[in-house]
Design brief:
alpha/beta; Spore Coat Polysaccharide Biosynthesis Protein SpsA, Chain A; 356 residues; 8-stranded mixed β-sheet
């Protein structure tokens, strides 16, 4: 079957990286037909650079709905030109693709007739900071969770996912007919903090599968704490809001998968708080904890697991894993950020979409 492949990229002030992104598309083993870059409220030369590198530029100068609004703007223009069996590759402007990404995603559609969209495995771009390296390791290990989930996406990655046109049409139709919560009128939910998570839930609710191809989309990591905090608060809070909005309309097995993740994070946060309390009380009443050789057993097991799972990333990741402490501090940091997101969710504080 011959399919048209259109690429849609929402870009806001990405003049420094958009050329590399477009070059990774031009190098695909399965050539794409057209590339559309939405210049989304840009104040730099993103549009000019994109045009010079083979993209059709769609200027959007007054977008009030961030990435989701930009994607809807493009999809409304291009979907009428496509057949149900054609595909749209939605990707970020700071992403570089494996050369065989489109080809492998298309193979998944052939293998699984129920597939409505195919995701990629996102990995981090090389970095010189410890905070960035910890994210590289986190992303690398996330692959194992996807494989344990039967190579099905928890979230169709915004870095790069290939959507069947039929799927996008059914999502829009379901929104307009009240079968999906919020944001009637178009493809993506413009009210969601995490539009990729929301459209994944929407597609699965409509009884499509969302497999993940064994290909990589390389994206930026957050080298500054403030950017990391803003990104993860948005991710955590957005996921909670999406699950609340869908409520019991999701099939039971989907509710179990996604709420199990949230319960795991909540239990981890509670356990961390209790451990801190126990340590403080032990210090006050008993003068501290007596450490014996038996503590070495779980420590050695942890070191082996942490190191083996990032071995392929090279000596920097191996060294960080062996030393243990940086990753433990990073895990605690993410738990505390989750606590902020949970608090925002519980008090119904409106979140903010950030360009990360």
């Amino acid at each position: 079957m011959t399919r048209k492949i259109y690429v849609v990229i929402a870009a806001r002030n990405e003049e420094k990286c958009i050329a590399d992104t477009l070059n990774s598309i031009h190098q695909q083993s399965y050539p794409v037909d057209k590339i559309f870059v939405i210049a989304n409220n840009c104040t730099d030369n993103t549009a000019d650079v994109a045009a010079k590198n083979g993209a059709t530029v769609l200027n959007m100068l007054n977008n009030q709905h961030m990435k989701a609004g930009a994607l809807n703007f493009a999809l409304e223009k291009i979907i009428p030109d496509l057949q149900d069996t054609d595909c749209v590759l939605v990707m970020d402007a700071d992403t570089k693709l494996s050369n065989n990404l489109v080809e492998e995603c298309l193979k998944n559609f052939k293998k699984n007739p129920r597939a409505g969209a195919v995701g990629s495995i996102f990995i981090g771009r090389p970095t010189t900071t410890l905070l960035g390296q910890l994210q590289l390791m986190e992303f690398w290990r996330y692959r194992r969770q996807i494989h344990r989930n039967g190579d099905m996406a928890f979230v169709l990655s915004g870095t790069a996912s290939l959507f069947l046109v039929r799927t996008l049409k059914e999502v829009k139709n379901a929104r307009n007919n009240g079968l999906l919560p919020l944001s009637k009128g178009s493809y993506y939910d413009v009210s969601s903090l995490t539009e990729d998570n929301e459209i994944t839930l929407s597609i699965k609710k409509l009884d499509f599968d969302c497999p993940v191809a064994n290909v990589f989309s390389e994206t930026d990591v957050m080298d500054e704490f403030k950017k990391l905090k803003n990104q993860r608060v948005r991710w955590y809070q957005g996921a909670l809001v999406n699950l609340k909005n869908f409520g019991t309309s999701l099939p039971w097995h989907m509710r179990w998968i996604y709420w199990k993740q949230q319960i795991g994070l909540l239990v981890s946060l509670i356990m961390f708080s209790l451990i801190c309390l126990v340590l403080i009380m032990t210090q006050i009443f008993f003068g501290g904890i007596i450490i014996t050789w038996i503590w070495l057993i779980p420590l050695v097991v942890l070191v082996l697991e942490r190191t083996s799972t990032v071995w392929e990333l090279g000596w920097k990741s191996r060294f960080i894993a062996i030393t243990i402490i940086p990753e433990q501090i990073y895990s605690i940091l993410l738990l505390l950020i989750y606590g902020i997101a949970l608090k925002n969710f519980l008090i119904n504080k409106k979140g903010q979409w950030g360009n990360t």
